[in-house]
């Protein structure tokens, strides 16, 4: 999952240290290429959601997109590339949403770290509901080989960014643990939102979780 961030960057995703999990796709696309890639991602999300990653077939994805299999390989290099592209799409949208919220809150004069953190958490959770099909897919333990390691790497970066937002001293173990607990609460709630029956239930969960975060971040002593 992504975190509550202002700018996380994407180089760690596109160029991981071991070189195994790159996106294998062009840096930019315009016009017809964007349309083709969008159709492929939409079809991949449908098929992955119905059959799981392991049982999803490239021929079915290409057929639903109305695009030759060869074009799928040209744009994404195969099933792994499609899955990672969906993950990046989800992550980047969540980042844009939370970053915009933090900017707006600061523009209103909010500078309290806890208030900013909770506002960012709310934006992230609302995004998880709006993009629940993608969120459900990514939460499953059925991704390409090596994806769990990539996700753990990103989760660690999420904790560090939340620590900075909360102005927690990362050198203190107690501070690190506290931020990790808060981050885990948000991630767990985001997964639950994927199973909500309707928006009313989802927003009740968002309100509940934000209340928990306020309680957990309240000064002690």
UniProtKB/TrEMBL annotation:
Keywords: DNA-binding, Transcription, Transcription regulation
UniProt xrefs under InterPro entries: Homeodomain-like_sf, HTH-type_TetR-like_transc_reg, HTH_TetR
DNA-binding region, residues: 57-76
Region (Disordered): 1-26
HTH tetR-type domain mapped to chain residues: 34-94
Domain of life: Bacteria
Species annotation: Streptomyces machairae
Protein known as: Helix-turn-helix domain-containing protein
């Amino acid at each position: 999952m992504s975190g509550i961030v202002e700018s996380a960057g994407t180089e760690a995703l596109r160029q991981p240290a071991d070189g195994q999990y790159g996106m294998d796709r062009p840096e930019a696309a315009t016009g017809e290429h964007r349309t083709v890639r969008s159709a492929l991602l939409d079809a991949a999300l449908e098929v992955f959601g119905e059959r799981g990653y392991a049982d999803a077939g490239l021929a079915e994805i290409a057929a639903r997109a109305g695009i030759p299999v060869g074009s799928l390989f040209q744009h994404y290099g195969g099933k792994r590339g499609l899955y990672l592209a969906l993950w990046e799409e989800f992550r980047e949208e969540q980042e844009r949403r939370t970053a915009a919220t933090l900017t707006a809150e600061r523009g209103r004069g909010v500078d309290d770290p806890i208030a900013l953190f909770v506002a960012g958490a709310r934006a992230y959770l609302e995004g998880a509901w709006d993009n629940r099909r993608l969120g459900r897919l990514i939460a499953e333990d059925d991704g390409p080989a090596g994806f769990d390691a990539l996700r753990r790497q990103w989760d660690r970066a999420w904790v560090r960014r939340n620590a900075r937002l909360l102005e927690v001293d990362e050198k203190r173990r107690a501070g690190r643990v506290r931020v990790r607990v808060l981050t885990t609460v948000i991630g767990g709630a985001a997964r639950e939102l994927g199973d909500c029956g309707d928006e009313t239930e989802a927003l009740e969960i968002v309100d509940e979780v934000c209340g928990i975060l306020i309680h957990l971040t309240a000064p002690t002593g």
